[in-house]
Amino acid sequence: DLSMNDERTPLVPSGQSIQDEPGRRVSRAAAAQRSKTDMYNVLLLSVGFMVLFSSYNTLQNYVTSLLPGNLGNQSLAVLYVTVCIFVFTGPTVVAHLGEKWTMVLGAACYCVYIASLIHVVPGVVLAAAVVIGFGAAVLWIAMGSFITLCSAPGEYGKNSGIFWGIFQMSNVCGNLVAYFVFAHVGKAALFTAFSAVAVAGVLALCFLRPVRNNGGEDMTAAAHSSERRSITAEIKAVVCVLLSPQLLALAYMFIFSGMELAFWTGEFPQLLDPESIGIVLCFAGIGEVVGGTGMGRLGDRLGSSITIVLGGLIYAAGLACACILKVFSCLRVSVYLSLSLSHGAVLCPAQDSSPEPHLAKASYLAYIAAFCFGVGDSTFNTQCYAIIPRLFDEATALKSFTVFQLYQNIGSAIGFYYAIPLPMHGDDGSLGQVWVQCFLLSAGTLLFVYVDRYKTRKLEPSPEDLEE
After folding, report:
1. Over the stretch 17-67, which tens digit does the pLDDT of each residue have?
2. Which tens digit of pLDDT belongs to each residue from 385-395?
3. Is 230 buried (19+), middle (13-18) or exposed (0-12) by CB count in 10 A?
4. How many C-alpha atoms does 166 have within 13 Å on its Cβ side?
5. Residue 227 confidence class, pLDDT cut points 50, 70, 90
6. N or C, which end of the chain has less CB nearby within 10 Å?
7. How far, CA to CA in Å, does 301 sit from each of 77, 164, 305, 308, 458?
8. Which ranges of 117-244 would DSSP assign to H, the alpha helix?
9. pLDDT at position 458, please?
10. What is the Cα–Cα distance from 272 to 363, expressed in whole angstroms?
11. Could you give the dihedral angle defined by the CA atoms of residues 43, 460, 296 and 197, in that order, rounded to the nearest 10 degrees?
């Protein structure tokens, strides 16, 4: 028999019924209605996240450049450290509130952080970073569980890809708006508008429908009715899952997926002209959409191993482009310093004087790098979300999403923190961050392929099971 995670609606010939529970026969019409509800939920969830993160993702791309001193890096690092602390409370919150209302609560915490940037007070910004850290911890755990409940066997990659593709339109829409209005409005007005958009995203999540099984029972409540344990007991259960061989092997890829996000949203924009950040990172959003919709389906058809290797190669190409940008920047500074010394005066290099072609105050290489980062990021995330339900049953999968969020946010916290003493931008910048990422990407990819090839082959249902 299939596990609860696989007790979804199989395709059946017209006129036949399917077995949902012992002694209960369910019509094909009921199965079709459930499928429609699941797709409605996946699409609405995707749109809600797209609206919310059109505000937050765009803001995150700017805070390292716009906030005074290192406050941007510090607030983001505090955010991700807080996620690592509160992530253990995620399963308990989901068990008590259900996936839907947990996501509403988590999304509301994002609004608090965005609103704190309207008038910057360092203490308030850092306190709001703690609030959003809690919100992010429970939001993404609930999202992973909700997508799993809405997915039939063999559709985890497809539905994760649909979600990621629509969700990552936020990077396109938000950065386009920021690019065109940045020069015409002040920071306070921009962050006020972002706050209003974030609230709209929270409201959209309120209209998600309950996920019901073929017998009409609410799976989001029933799935966790027996799991309402104390936070201490929940932490112990999560730690047991964390120490499982599969997740220890996947830890490198989980950590890398957080570190690479910190790099291209925090460090990479500082290699660009501030006025070009929005338009360049639009291409990262386009890459996220292409990667989310394409790589998710590719993972279901060809397997996660091939897909993760392809995504890693594309991301590595983006790192190569970023390195070339850094080299050109250093050469440009060296040339102008030499000219200044030879002429006995200080000359100011023009923004568009580097040897590579430019568009909107940014090198073509910057657009290529951003697109590659987007495709790579979406590939890593969709395949990580897709592999967990194939490794664990539903109850364990929820805790596995918690471990994924823990590792991923550890990676993001490290990424934002070590960017302060080890910057890539600036005259004293180095390629240290690139070498660290190359190591984690290589190790993470190899171990991910091992787990996918070794474990999912054992857990694939037989044809006899599928016929049932």
Report:
1. 444 444 445 566 667 777 788 889 999 999 999 999 988 988 877 777 777
2. 888 888 877 66
3. exposed
4. 17
5. low
6. N
7. 37, 17, 11, 13, 18
8. 122-149, 156-167, 169-181, 187-205, 219-222, 231-242
9. 45
10. 9
11. 40
Question: What residue type is assigned to position 250 of the chain?
Answer: L
Structure tokens at 464: 């006899």
DSSP 345-413: S-----TT-SSS-EETTEEHHHHHHHHHHHHHHHHHHHHHHHHHHHHS-HHHHHHHHHHHHHHHHHHHH
Question: How far is 216 from 181, CA to CA, in rounded Å?
Answer: 48
Q: Which two tokens mark 439?
A: 């190591």
Which H or E run contains 26?
Answer: strand 24-26
DSSP string covering 89-120: GHHHHHHHHHHHHHHHHHHHHHHHHHHHTSS-
- In the predicted structure, residue 379 carries a pLDDT above the cut 80: yes
Instruction: Say whether 175 sits in a helix, a strand or coil.
Output: helix
Average pLDDT over residues 370-399: 86
* Distance separating alpha carbons of residues 270 and 423, to the nearest angstrom: 10
3-state secondary structure of 65: helix
CB 279 within 8 A of CB 362: yes
What is the spatial distance between Cα 235 and Cα 209, in angstroms, rounded to a whole number? 29
**What do you get for the CA distance between the two ends of the chain, in Å?**
8
Give the whole-angstrom CA distance, residue 104 versus residue 202.
Answer: 6
Long-range contacts formed by 341-349: CB under 8 A, 24+ apart? none
Q: What is the DSSP letter of 271?
A: G
For the ranges 46-60, 274-288, 361-375, which has the lowest average pLDDT?
274-288
Grouping H, G, I as helix, E, B as strand and the rest as coil, residue 24 is: strand
Which residues share a beta bridge with 25? Answer: 19
DSSP 418-447: HTTTS-SSSTT--SHHHHHHHHHHHHHHHH
Q: Over 80: is that where the pLDDT of 414 sits?
A: yes
Contact 285, 175 (CB under 8 A): yes
* Amino acid 334: pLDDT: 43
Bridge partner list, 358: 363
Q: Which two tokens stand for residue 254?
A: 């989980």
- Retrieve residue 105's tokens: 């609560």
Distance CA 190, CA 205 (A): 24
| Three-class DSSP category at 51 | helix
Give the best-scoring range by mean pLDDT among 137-146, 156-165, 227-236: 137-146
What is the rounded CA–CA span in Å between residue 272 and residue 407?
29
Place of tokens 């989901």: 94
Q: Output the CA–CA distances (angstroms, integers) from residue 88 to 132, 235, 404, 421, in the order listed.
A: 15, 6, 11, 30
